[in-house]
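Reviewer 2 asked us to include a model.

Predict the structure of this chain.
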Amino acid sequence: MTPLDGCTSVGLREFHSSEVQHDRTDSHGHDSERSALVSLSQEPRGDRHGDGLMARARIGVLVPAGNPTVEPELYRMGPPSVTFHFARLDTGAAEPGATDGMERHTLAYLDSLPAALRSLSAVKPTVVALAHTAVSYLTGFEREPGLLERLNALAGTRAFTAARAVHAALQHLGVRRLALGTPYPEVISSAGRAYWQAAGFEVAVHRQLDGVANIYEETEERAYSLGRAANAPAADAVLISGTGLPTAGIVDRLERELGKPVVTSQSAVLWQALRTAGISDSVRGYGRLLAERG
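Predicted model (structure tokens):
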């Protein structure tokens, strides 16, 4: 059985840089994902007791089958002694992440929730995150409570969606007017704008990332450009949506340049997971949302 068939449960100290290869680069041309994992492999991330890893929290994460971004970014940002455990959602899409047919495939991910959560429950996660923002957009803000109820029942523990994590993060930061950047095709981007309006935010500006053929092939530099383009003086914060878009290495840079909070799907998922698990560590280097915890 391969990790794609079920749940991937990985202690951070057990990652070895020689076992992973990544070709994604950051906004300065460096191999950000590889360098992050190399750093993690060299630094103890938990306390050992006997042969087991002592974890303060086990964070379960449901990930679209072809998403290569969520795992390395959560490992990169996560505080010591927190472990991440992944289960993949499948739709049988010929090319995961491709914009053609994305609307149909996005909703189909929900059909694989029962099998994925049965596998994930074996590690007894403290909390479970559905790391797929677009599925909430197509579900709609008003109908999402039904999805959350189903997710919590199947998980057998506290669970949330990426979009609800972003919603809680924006409220925490006191945001009312939002600058929104999306990498999706028009149908999902429009649904995203409608979602945030229904959630009570004013969308001051909305920018779509041009020329996206497959979201999983995008770079940090392109995500940075999207954040810059989406910004508006009237906006209280910038939201870069999409867990498939690599953003961990650009949030601090954008916040310094724009002078306002920048929230991404990944940073909000981690923030909400730690909050739900009762962990108040300040996580620096990835934006105000994570740095001002505690």
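The chain has one domain: 3-291. Confidence is low (pLDDT under 50) at residues 1-52. We have added this to the supplementary material.
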